[in-house]
Amino acid sequence: MPRTKQYNEQEVIEKAMQLFWRNGYQTTSVQMLEKEMGINKFSIYASFGSKDGVFLESIKCYEKRLNTLINRLKDSGNGVESIKEYFREFLLFSKGNKFGKGCLITNTANEIDQDADTKIKMVLGDFIDRVRTVFATVLAKDKNKDGKTIEQQADFLIISMFGLSSASRVFNPEQMENYIENIFRNI
Amino acid sequence: MPRTKQYNEQEVIEKAMQLFWRNGYQTTSVQMLEKEMGINKFSIYASFGSKDGVFLESIKCYEKRLNTLINRLKDSGNGVESIKEYFREFLLFSKGNKFGKGCLITNTANEIDQDADTKIKMVLGDFIDRVRTVFATVLAKDKNKDGKTIEQQADFLIISMFGLSSASRVFNPEQMENYIENIFRNI
DNA sequence: GATATTCCTAACCGTTTGGTTAGTTTTATT
DNA sequence: AATAAAACTAACCAAACGGTTAGGAATATC
């Protein structure tokens, strides 16, 4: 009996995600979301409940995309070298959005207050833990280096990822390649 | 003839700077500034003209503080080792604020839109250029490594600074020390 | 002590914020 | 064709936004 929905929820979330990615959570208003998603406020709240709801779905959408890269990394047999490749792809992926706006996940981690919304924090924490585990798994394929533990190396790589994301918003691709080279010079 | 001002502009800017540092530019409202600075909106606009005016003065105030570290680095004769020490002090300085909120300058560089307020962008650009120059000067004191140019090394260090700032907002001091060690393992 | 000058309080401006809701349009079913 | 259920438009809400201003309170000079 109902009237058919004139928009696809996955499609409009995709657009919302792009907007959040470009502007960050705080700066993006519901009115901007209306414009970008092409549906009006009523539909936004009917489908996602709140601005936070839209944001959470946007993060999930972003993660789904990033998972393609992470799964490829997990399945690779090359050890550290494949993480280097992952970083390059990660940067390419970040630019795929528009101009260098870094990684939505790390941007959000930097943006939200330490004592902020629990749900968002949880999603971020889970994601970072998952990437760290993948890094550790990949690192285990190489022979041990210099008595450094896998955990230490994985930690360093996670922090480097934050650095890459942040730096890519300000520096050009050649400088970023220089950065990647140096990260892996003695991991 | 006039009534004496009941607040010290330098003192209230110091407080404003702390607030911007903690919350970022966008999130900080004039009402929050009123509360933190301990003066009311009228006085804020009388002294600094606008929210942007307060922010610009806050950046200058922050730079003045950071300059202590940078000047010490510039005067040091230890080459790369003194930059490492600078990074440690830089992180300590960042935490001096409250909890890890990174560096106000790099936070701002990440926050503002690429096509945003020219004045703020200029101040940021000038600061980063100055630090890069200091890095290059210090690097020149060491013997050349691996055929990498001073510029490449300085670039890498600037990018690392962004990484440090971003990562310190999310990771604990031990992890950060691990990060610093790795940065300098083969600069 | 009058006066001129500055400061401060507090109310106010129009706009935008996240969020809601009444009322209309559409449409699958009967 | 009547109807019931959902989707839409658009006006609306109170609160908060950045910014302004009138008018009373204070004070250094004369």
Please report the first level of CATH classification, the CATH class of chain A: Mainly Alpha
Counting DSSP H or I runs of 4 or more residues, the number of helices of chain A is: 9
So, the CATH homologous superfamily of chain A? Tetracycline Repressor, domain 2
* Helix content range of chain A: over 70%
Number of domains of chain A: 1
Count of beta strands of chain A? 0
Counting copies of identical and different chains, the oligomeric state is homodimer
Low-confidence stretches of chain A: none
Q: From N to C, what is the helix and strand string of chain A?
A: HHHHHHHHH
**CATH third-level topology of chain A:** Tetracycline Repressor, domain 2
Mean pLDDT value of chain A: 87
Q: Please state the overall shape of chain A, judged from the principal axes of the Cα atoms.
A: elongated
Main beta-sheet annotation of chain A:
none
- Content-based structural category of chain A: mainly alpha
Distance linking N and C termini of chain A? 62 Å
Largest interface: A-B, 37 and 37 residues
Strand content of chain A: under 5%
Radius of gyration of chain A (CA) equals 18 Å
